[in-house]
Specification:
Blueprint (H helix, E strand, L loop, with lengths): L37 E5 L3 H21 L5 E7 L1 H7 L7 H8 L8 E5 L6 H38 L8 H17 L3 H23 L8 H4 L16 H8 L5 H18 L3 H21 L8 H20 L6 H24 L10 H14 L13 H10 L1 H21 L3 H17 L3 H18 L2 H17 L3 H12 L6 H21 L4 E4 L4 E8 L3 E3 L3 E10 L5 E13 L1 H11 L36 E8 L2 E9 L2 H4 L22 E9 L2 E10 L4 E12 L2 E6 L6 E5 L4 E6 L5 E2 L3 E9 L9 E7 L3 E5 L6 E3 L7 E10 L8 E10 L4 E10 L2 E10 L2 E10 L5 E9 L6 E5 L7 E3 L5 E9 L7 E10 L9 E9 L6 E9 L6 E2 L4 E9 L10 E7 L5 E4 L3 E5 L4 E10 L3 E4 L2 E7 L4 H13 L17 H4 L3 H4 L2 E2 L6 E3 L5 E5 L14
GO biological process, one term: intra-Golgi vesicle-mediated transport
Pfam families: Foie-gras_1, Ig_TRAPPC10, TRAPPC10, TRAPPC10_1st
Organism: Candidula unifasciata
């Protein structure tokens, strides 16, 4: 047809005998039940053709041409006998005659059917050709008629604005095309025709409502006397079609007929869900059109029509839809159930069938009128289904029947909505059911519906609606005589910010009255969340770190929503112990995060802890779960296998457009450890309260929950999101020992001291004895002789001082101070506390040995270290192991010896001996000392021991520098004589072969030494002399070159013989004078080799007495006219 793509059609044709009277003319514009194609059948031979058949065909052709019918076909049935006769003369067959007479221009309109009664291949081929020819010619005929019909239809449609044009005549004309397309199997195209008619009618109604009246719409505006719903029991309602054709149908009847035809085509195409979808627009639009055209109907008539139509459509959809679990189907049928129950509810109010209403005579008369307008349907329905009209008549017959049907409709609509996940719509119906149950005095059934509705409003942010429904919930719970739930609801209403003050004050009084009643009748306690009652503005901890047994405080700034002041028995905040990482996590949760783009659902700003005991509606799962198995193989070996869920999108789909908001059950924390404040009154609005508690356990704690107790009611508010945490640390008791009179403790005297005890986090309820453990030579005791040191009772974070005496022995050590350990044990605490005590050595003793030739002197120096002054007396120095030695004190016997850090004491003894050679002397120095700070007035003894050895003078060393000429002063640049004399003082019984070595060292800028500056020699007759040539290089008083003698150990003779001989001969070496290089100024460098230095051993201090040490010689400058360098030695 025009404007459409080629389609495959299903055509059923029927053959009827030819009758000239049924031939349609050009003016007949029908498509159904009219002859489309004409066939002339003949099986005559040539003779019969010439006599009668040709004339008959000619008459048939003339009749077709007279009616302008070009669709025809001549079929010649041929047999074997006719073929034999045809072979006698060429072109003498019937086929040739017919083609020549009638089909010269249209050879395709003549065909031969050969031997139709035979089953051979030739006969089958001829039949196939005939069917193919018929198919083509029939399609051409239908195409020609459809194109002509559509052109006529378009021309009629273009005349729709002309006077006298009738929509219903045009409707019947275009519906004829729809019938034809339906007959051809083109259901979709047929549906398009009805959709076009529907849209055209809507446009006419809209124009009519805007004042553009048309004559054909006038019958539709007349009062309607029938409001029976649409009937889908039959595919075609001929009575309604005749009424539409005669322009006598009402608007409801026309709409019923049009929708029934659309639904029939959709049912045939298996799209029952689309019927339910279209039904919504059909019902709403028809109601709007009735109002726009101001069609008069009795009150409730349209409600009846909508109710009946909904039930009929739902019944038909269920019959034509196989799978009732299809979500698409359930989505649209749920809206129909909802619409039907709303109209039934409207009828209940109109006819006073709702609970609590009594029908009047006018309402009873209205029920009779409504029932009469439904009319009786003659269609036979399934015996398992009740007719919609009968169900409505029964519902309007009595309040009990109305109640039963109304509840069934509501349950059906709610169940369908819940199945498809439309919980919001289901809860709206539940709210209506709650109101209905309240009217029929069944509040126990209404409570859950009200709770679900409140939950929905709160999740979506409709707080005004939520609190308004809360008032209904309060009335319901009051009827249930459940004082606990009623108390919570009334308290919530009293604190609502979305209700009027009068309502809040009313329920505040109800709250107080119910609370008093509960407290008097029962000892049970009721708990509820305080999220809507109090808002916490800020929480401030007194300290972040608290010591054990100390008090911690917390200040809470909160906002009370009660309309009147409220006095609570107590206000508590529970304390929970946690780890440091958990406390840090609580704090981090409260810190602002970096802003990120994130989808915010519609309910994210709603607090999750609004009111107690609300449970969300659970989304139903599909009745079955479909799985598919996946198996992968490689070389006939199993690699992987798995199971997948095909309807995972149904199982995992979100139940609503908001996140999960399941509220945990409120539970009161353990308030054994908590901040508390008894008897607090909170004013409406801002309040500030401070709570405190004593911390009896150490660790990290965070705030858990706040509880406001008022008689039998506990208002709970979780505080885990606040992030306030603090740490309780334990401070151990501390003992400190301090001197009374000095800054530091002094060894050697008994000092008065104070033992200071800081209890820290601990306390002592009764006296306790202190026991001490000390380092050696250190003691501590009570000031009262023979008594124990007792610690008096003390509280936490207090300090007590205990007087004691401290003594540490005085030992002569190199360190100025000595650290001792003190352990204090308290019996009641069963713990030892250790500390270090530092003692200053008040003075120290040192000794030195001095030599003057053969005479020896011993000096003892007492050096003070403390600011306190010590008095020394009776100094003695003894050598108890050697009786041949006499030590004579050279100091005055009556001299006062005082020692402190500003004054030292020096004592000197002369050593006299009866024997030439002394052994190792062990000396002991003792003295008595006293100090004004000493608690013990008795003097104390101080002793100092030392040992001296190898201190006797063995050799006397003397050397001088003089000019070569006698009685002449030394002059710079001239050779002088350095004469060295060594004399043995003690009889050492040394052999003459004992060797000594000398070494001369001098500054190379001052002296030039000639010859060997070192050498080995032996002592003969106890003395030895060495003469060296030296040249002074500077003028002035010059120090002698330094001469040192050593012991020479001859260990390896074979290697050192030559060297020793050479060095021994160097005593009288008269080699020319040479300046000593600066690189030969050490002993090892002056020796012949480093091997020589390894044989030298120094004498112990005092064994060699150098008489010429630090002596000088006056060197005069030489006479010259130039400048000379003069050295002044001071």
């Amino acid at each position: 047809s025009y404007g459409r793509a080629p389609r495959s059609i299903h055509l059923e044709a029927s053959f009827v005998p030819y009758d000239p009277d049924i031939l349609p003319g050009d003016e007949e514009k029908t498509l159904v039940s009219r002859p489309y194609f004409h066939i002339y059948w003949t099986d005559c031979d040539v003779e019969a053709y010439k006599q009668t058949v040709r004339d008959d065909i000619t008459e048939w052709q003339s009749a077709l041409k007279a009616r302008n019918i070009p669709d025809w076909l001549i079929v010649i049935v041929s047999t074997d006998e006719s073929k034999v006769k045809a072979k006698l003369l060429p072109r003498a067959s019937v086929l040739d005659k017919v083609k020549g007479d009638f089909c010269s221009k249209y050879p395709e309109r003549c065909i031969v059917l050969t031997d139709p009664n035979k089953l051979d291949s030739k006969s089958s081929e001829s039949w196939s050709q005939l069917f193919q020819r018929l198919r083509n010619l029939l399609l051409q005929a239908f195409d020609r008629h459809l194109n002509r019909y559509e052109e006529t239809m378009r021309s009629k449609r273009e005349k729709r604005n002309e006077p006298g044009w009738n929509y219903f005549s045009y409707f019947i004309f275009q519906e004829e095309l729809a019938f034809m397309l339906e007959m051809l199997g083109l259901k979709e195209d047929a549906l398009i025709q009805y959709d076009e008619l529907d849209a055209m009618f809507d446009q006419f109604v809209e124009n009519f409502a805007n004042g553009d009246t048309v004559q054909w719409l006038t019958p539709l505006v007349k009062p309607s006397l029938c409001w029976s719903g649409v009937s889908l029991a039959r595919s075609l309602d001929l009575e309604l079609r005749d009424a539409v054709k005669q322009n006598t149908a009402s608007l409801l009847e026309f709409r019923n007929y049009l929708f029934s035809r659309q639904a029939t085509l959709l049912f045939q195409m298996g799209r029952a869900w689309e019927v339910a979808q279209r039904a919504q627009n059909y019902l709403y639009n028809t109601v709007v059109e009735m109002r726009a055209l101001e069609v008069e109907v009795p009150k409730g008539a349209m409600c009846c029509w909508v109710f009946l139509s909904c039930l009929e459509i739902l019944r038909a959809c269920e019959e034509h839809h196989v799978s009732q679990l299809d979500e698409k189907f359930a989505l649209f049928t749920a809206n129909l159930w909802d619409y039907a129950h709303k109209k039934l509810r409207e009828l209940g109010h109109l006819c006073s069938l709702m609970p609590g209403l009594v029908p009047t005579s006018e309402q009873l008369s209205l029920v009779v009128d409504l029932v009469s307008g439904m009319r009786f349907s003659e269609e036979s329905l399934s015996p398992t289904h009740q007719k919609p009209a009968d169900k409505l008549r029964e519902s309007l017959s009595s309040p009990e029947s109305f109640k039963r049907h109304y509840l069934d409709m509501c349950e059906q609509a709610m169940g369908t909505y819940k199945y498809i996940g439309r919980f919001r719509s289901a809860r709206m119906i539940g709210l209506e059911l709650a109101e209905f149950y309240m009217k029929i005095k069944e509040p126990q059934k209404a409570e859950n519906f009200l709770l679900d509705s409140i939950k929905m409003y709160q999740q979506e942010g409709w707080l005004y609606l939520a609190d308004g429904t809360m008032v209904q919930l309060a009335e319901c719970q009051k009827c249930l005589h459940n004082p606990g739930n009623y108390l919570k609801t009334a308290c919530h209403i009293a604190c609502s910010t979305h209700l009027s003050l009068d309502v809040r004050l009313q329920y505040f009084e109800e709250t107080m009255k119910t609370l008093n009643l509960i407290s008097d009748e029962s000892s049970d306690r009721y708990e509820m969340r305080a999220s809507q009652i109090f808002f916490i503005e800020s929480i401030t901890l007194g300290r972040v770190s608290v010591t054990l047994n100390d008090h911690q405080s917390v200040t809470v700034e909160l906002y009370s929503n009660f309309p009147q002041p409220v006095t609570f028995n107590s206000l508590q905040i529970s304390i929970k112990k946690c780890t440091e990482s958990e406390a840090l996590e609580f704090v981090q949760q409260q810190q602002p995060h970096v802003a990120k783009h994130k989808r915010q659902p519609s309910g994210t700003h709603i607090a999750s802890d609004k009111i107690a005991n609300f449970q969300p509606v659970t989304r139903q799962l599909p009745s079955q779960i479909d799985f598919h198995i996946t198996i992968e193989r490689n070389n006939k070996r199993l690699i992987a296998c798995g199971i997948g869920c095909e309807n995972a999108h149904k199982l995992l789909k979100r139940a609503d457009s908001i996140p999960s908001s399941s509220t945990p059950t409120v539970c009161k924390d353990d308030y054994t450890h908590s901040f508390s404040l008894p008897s607090v009154t909170l004013q409406p609005g801002h309040n500030s309260v401070t709570l405190s508690t004593q911390m009896m356990e150490k660790g990290v704690f965070h705030l858990g929950q706040m509880c406001l107790s008022m008689k039998s009611l506990d208002l709970l508010k979780p505080l885990t999101s606040v992030g306030a945490s603090f740490k309780v640390v334990s401070i151990l008791p501390e003992f400190t020992l301090k001197p009374v009179d000095t800054e530091h403790f002094l060894s050697g005297i008994e000092q008065a001291a104070m033992l200071i005890c800081k209890s820290g986090s601990s306390s002592l309820n009764e006296e306790s004895t202190l026991s001490f453990s000390t380092s050696p030579y250190f003691s501590i005791s009570s000031r009262e002789d023979g008594k124990d040191v007792v610690l008096s009772p003390l509280s936490a974070h207090s300090t007590v001082e205990v007087p004691v005496l401290v003594y540490s022995s005085l030992k002569n050590e190199h360190n100025h101070s000595v650290v001792s350990k003190l352990g204090v044990t308290v019996d009641k605490w069963q713990k030892t506390f250790s500390q270090n005590v530092e003692f200053i050595q008040p003075f120290q003793a040192t000794h030195r040995v001095y030599t003057s030739g053969k005479q020896k002197y011993i000096q003892v120096i007492i050096q003070g270290n403390a600011s306190a002054t010590f008095t020394l007396s009776e100094p003695r120095l003894e050598a108890p192991e050697c009786r041949d030695v006499e030590l004579v004190l050279l100091n005055k016997s009556d001299q006062i010896l005082l020692v402190n850090h500003h004054q030292n004491v020096s004592l000197l003894w002369q050593l006299n001996s009866n024997i030439p050679l002394l052994p190792i002397l062990d000396l002991t120095f003792t003295c008595s000392y006293s100090c004004p700070l000493d608690a013990n007035p008795q003097p104390h003894e101080f002793d100092y021991s030392c040992s001296i050895q190898n201190f006797q003078t063995q050799y006397l060393l003397l050397y001088t520098v003089s000019s070569i000429e006698e009685d002449k002063a030394c002059t710079t640049g001239e050779t002088a004589i350095l004469e060295i004399k060594i004399r043995q003082l003690l009889d050492l019984d040394l052999a003459d072969t004992a060797k000594l070595a000398y070494c001369v060292k001098a500054n190379g800028n001052v002296w030039a030494i000639g010859g060997k500056s070192s050498g080995v020699f032996t002592m003969k007759e106890g003395k030895h002399s060495i003469v060296l040539d030296v040249v002074p290089l500077q003028a002035g008083h010059l120090h002698f070159p330094m001469v040192t003698i050593y012991k020479y150990l001859d260990q390896i003779e074979d290697h050192t013989a030559d060297d020793d001989g050479e060095l021994a001969d160097s005593d009288n070496d008269s080699a020319p004078l040479q300046p000593v290089p600066k690189t030969q100024r050490t002993v090892s460098q002056l020796s012949a080799s480093s091997h020589f230095a390894s044989h030298l051993v120094e004498f112990s201090p005092g064994q060699v007495y150098n008489e010429s040490k630090n002596q000088q010689v006056h060197v005069y400058p030489c006479q010259t006219t130039g400048d000379i360098e003069v050295s002044i030695v001071q």
